[in-house]
Design brief:
- With 361 residues, the chain is mainly alpha-helical.
- It has two domains: 182 residues, no CATH class; 114 residues, secretion proteins EscU (name from scop).
- The protein has 13 helices and four strands.
- A four-stranded mixed beta sheet has the order 3-2-1-4, with helices on both faces.
- The longest helix has 41 residues.
- It is elongated, with a radius of gyration of 42 Å.
- The N terminus is likely disordered.
């Protein structure tokens, strides 16, 4: 029963039940793993392109007509030479660019805007790195028959159905006018069918944008599910950020040892060591060039206090026993800092006694 309980606790700790931490989110973002819907890109692209066609259709029509007029009225009468062919090619390229440039520019803006809207500014080369795991046929088969693949299939069928219904509805509404186009001029027929095509494109783009909201919601949910963490993962991450407690303890111990060694090196220059006499030891120095008040160069309790007294004795530093003062100085003083104003009088009396003793000696 004990082993069963431990196994259950182990599996519970490994279960992905916790939301991703900010660090986990940042790491996955650096790898290019962000919630993103391609339908948002497609919807924006179609909407802006058909909107551009709707607004600039007259300008494009005029440019095309001008090209045909020049081609059949001027170019057809020119001599077919290398220079003339080059000049005609350059002129036609410039005119075609006037038609294509707005569409290409809008497509570029749509692609950038849709990505910024979803993921913001992000530069990463991780998705471009070669990963042999992606060539694993077993994992590939799992992806093909996964729940995500089923969702993508249903989503594709829904998009095809929506676009099909929309285009059929628009054609059905305008079927009578379409039948009458045989009685109209070619220019009127082309204008009518161009308008109908643009309307179908705009309606389909709006439908895809509505669908993309649902798709983005699902992509975000699926992303959050995939980056969930177990309690063990959170603990491990915390250890990596803060450092292993054992290593941190060793570092602190080393720092204490270095501090103690540096502190002991200051004891020989002290003016006096005030003791408890067994538990506390505080080394005091008065240097007018460094501080207006006496300051603590070393202090400690028990073992460190014993070492301070041994160093003081070996270097002929005077030791004075004053139990209340030693305790108070230890509790209210910092190393390399002046003593508290409330101890001025008591420490001054001790220093006066030490100076008098040194003069006699």
């Amino acid at each position: 029963m004990v082993w069963l309980k431990l196994d259950l606790q182990y599996f519970a700790a490994d279960e992905k039940t916790e939301k991703a931490t900010p660090k986990k989110r940042e790491d996955t973002r650096k790898k290019g793993q962000v919630p993103k819907s391609q339908d948002v890109n497609t919807g924006f692209l179609l909407l802006l392109i058909f909107g551009t066609l709707f607004l600039l259709g007259g300008y494009m029509e005029g440019t095309l007509k001008g090209m045909y007029k020049v081609a059949f009225n001027e170019y057809i009468h020119k001599d077919l030479s290398q220079e003339q062919t080059h000049a005609m090619f350059v002129e036609m390229t410039v005119e075609i660019s006037k038609i294509i440039a707005p569409i290409m520019g809008v497509a570029l803006v749509a692609g950038i805007a849709s990505n910024l809207l979803q993921v913001g500014i992000m530069f990463t080369g991780e998705p471009l790195k070669m990963d042999l795991k992606k060539l694993d046929p077993i994992k590939g088969a799992k992806r093909i028959f996964s729940a995500r693949a089923l969702v993508e299939l249903l989503k594709s069928l829904l998009k095809i159905s929506m676009v099909g219904v929309i285009t059929f509805a628009i054609i059905w509404v305008n079927k009578d006018q379409m039948m009458m186009m045989s009685q109209k001029s070619v220019e009127d027929a082309l204008a009518f069918f161009g308008t109908i095509t643009t309307i179908m494109g705009l309606a389909s783009a709006l439908a895809l944008l509505i669908l993309s909201v649902l798709d983005y919601t699902y992509q975000k949910y699926d992303h959050e599910k995939n980056i969930r963490m177990s309690k063990k993962d959170i603990k491990d991450e915390h250890k990596n950020i803060e450092g292993d407690p054992q290593i941190k303890a060793k570092i602190k111990e080393k720092q204490r040892q270095m501090s103690a060694a540096r502190m002991m090196s200051e004891v020989p220059d002290a003016d006096v060591v005030i003791t408890n006499p067994t538990h506390y030891a505080i080394a005091i120095k008065y240097d007018e060039a460094k501080s207006d008040a006496p300051y603590v160069v070393a202090m400690g309790v028990d073992f460190i206090a014993l070492k301070i007294k041994e160093v003081a004795k070996s270097n002929d530093v005077v030791t004075v026993e004053n139990r209340p003062l030693a305790r108070a100085l230890y509790q209210h003083s910092e190393i390399d800092q002046p003593i508290n104003e409330q101890f001025y009088k008591a420490v001054a009396e001790v220093l006066a006694y030490v100076y008098q003793l040194e003069r006699k000696m």
